[in-house]
Design goal:
Blueprint lengths: L2 E5 L2 E8 L6 E5 L10 H9 L3 E5 L15 H14 L5 E6 L1 H12 L4 E7 L9 H9 L1 H12 L3 H4 L1 H18 L1 H13 L3 H6 L5 E6 L11 H10 L3 E6 L6 H4 L1 H9 L6 E2 L2
Parallel strand pairs: 3-4, 3-5, 5-6, 6-7, 7-8
Antiparallel strand pairs: 1-2, 2-4, 8-9
């Protein structure tokens, strides 16, 4: 069931799963997406006894307004949304663009964020010029490019499953609109404060990577990982075998285990 509240005079839509008295985790979606990408993960976390709140960012899904077009503006909105839900301290997870938003929110309000979970993340997160231009002028090409690189190969997922994931992803991007996608991608490309934000992070952080991710590949995660280590908090880096960039849809059960801390994986503490 969709819930709504008024934030800055506009409707903010969200889902709220699990026991109201349980520790809360907010899940933030990526570029051109909405809260629907988290549906299976949210259900799994709620079944494990967690309270899970999943908003649509402004201009996405059922939330009103224009897509903010800047990572810091989205982070400010997320913190205001948490205020409106009466959340003082909470866990925060974000995927792709949402991971940048989560990192910016944690930097802006470090005392409020408990565990931070960054899925499919890089800092900085450059977007290929071809994709930026396609998002502005040829949405169909942009959707095709994003689908090409979002998922593990058909040899891993199976032809039918990969086709279904691509169909669902294309429908979601079409529903959210080409202008929203273009503004989101430009925001990712423009944000240059990620490493500085990470270096000031002294709370526990999970970097969750798809082993087959071609958008934010594991081999490029090093600078973000090292910056988080410099902050002094516990940093876990977990790679999900058989997953590409859209890991929360490809293997939601593995993502749930990682967010709950029950995955095994490389662990670094400082």
């Amino acid at each position: 069931m969709t819930h709504t509240l008024q934030l800055d005079g506009r409707r903010a839509a969200f889902d709220d799963f699990g026991p109201a008295t349980a520790p809360a985790i907010l899940l933030i979606h990526g570029a051109g997406h909405d809260r629907g990408v988290w549906q299976a993960v949210a259900a799994g976390l709620a079944a494990a006894g967690r309270r899970v709140i999943v908003p649509d960012l402004p201009g996405h899904g059922d939330s009103e307004g224009e897509a903010p077009g800047a990572v810091d503006a989205m982070a400010t909105w997320v913190l205001a949304f948490a205020d409106a839900r009466g959340l003082d301290r909470f866990e925060l997870a974000g995927h792709s663009m949402g991971s940048l938003v989560a990192l910016a929110a944690a930097a802006a309000a470090p005392a409020r964020i408990g565990r931070l979970h960054l899925l499919g993340s890089l800092a900085p997160m450059p977007v290929a010029p071809l994709l930026l231009e396609a998002a502005r002028s040829d949405p169909a090409q942009a959707h095709a490019l994003i689908n090409k690189f979002s998922f593990a190969p058909a040899e891993v997922l199976g032809e039918e499953r990969r086709r279904a994931l691509e169909t669902g992803n294309r429908a979601r991007m079409e529903r959210n609109g080409s202008e929203t996608l273009a503004r989101d991608l430009a925001a990712c490309n423009a944000w240059q404060d990620g490493l500085a934000a990470a270096a000031h992070r002294d709370g526990p952080t999970l970097l969750l990577c798809g082993a087959l991710d071609r958008m934010t590949p594991v081999k490029a995660v090093g600078p973000l990982y090292e910056a988080l280590q410099a902050g002094g908090g516990e940093v876990r880096r977990v790679e999900l075998a058989g997953c590409g960039h859209a890991m929360q849809e490809e293997d939601p059960a593995a993502v749930v285990r990682a967010l709950l801390g029950t995955n095994t994986g490389p662990l670094s503490k400082k």
